[in-house]
Amino acid sequence: MRLVLILTLILVASPAAAQQISFDLAGSESLAGRSMLLIAAITLLSIAPGLAIMVTCFPFIVTVLSLLRQAMVETAVQN
Questions:
Q1: Which of 20, 34, 52, 71 has the maximum number of C-beta atoms within 10 A of its C-beta?
Q2: For residue 42, how far is the Cα from the chain centroid?
Q3: Which residue ranges traverse the bilayer (predicted)?
Q4: Whole-angstrom distance, CA of residue 77 vs CA of residue 75
């Protein structure tokens, strides 16, 4: 049964590996269109980290780990 599953996966995946991706930098798009696409891509890349911090639990994890680090530090004896 396991051999049949492996062979099926190999046979199904082989046509996908044969496909080619066409990426034409000197395409029929105008310079203004490519410029706008570049500006949009840079904007998305600059906004993405802020969105990731706002919609995930990253700030909570950082706060908890910071408090944990401070709690585990040995306190120095006052002279």
A1: 34
A2: 15
A3: 37-62
A4: 6
DSSP H stretches of helix in the chain: 2-17, 31-55, 58-72
Contact 41, 33 (CB under 8 A): no
Domains held by the chain: number:
1
Cα separation, 4 vs 12, in Å, equals: 12
d(CA 14, CA 7): 11
Q: Which residue has the tokens 């996966």?
A: 9
Model confidence, pTM: 0.38
Structure tokens at 9: 């996966």
Is the Cβ–Cβ distance between 13 and 6 less than 8 Å? no
Q: Is residue 4 part of a domain?
A: no
Six-digit token string for 1:
């049964």
42 pLDDT higher than 90: yes
The position carrying tokens 């044969």 is: 18
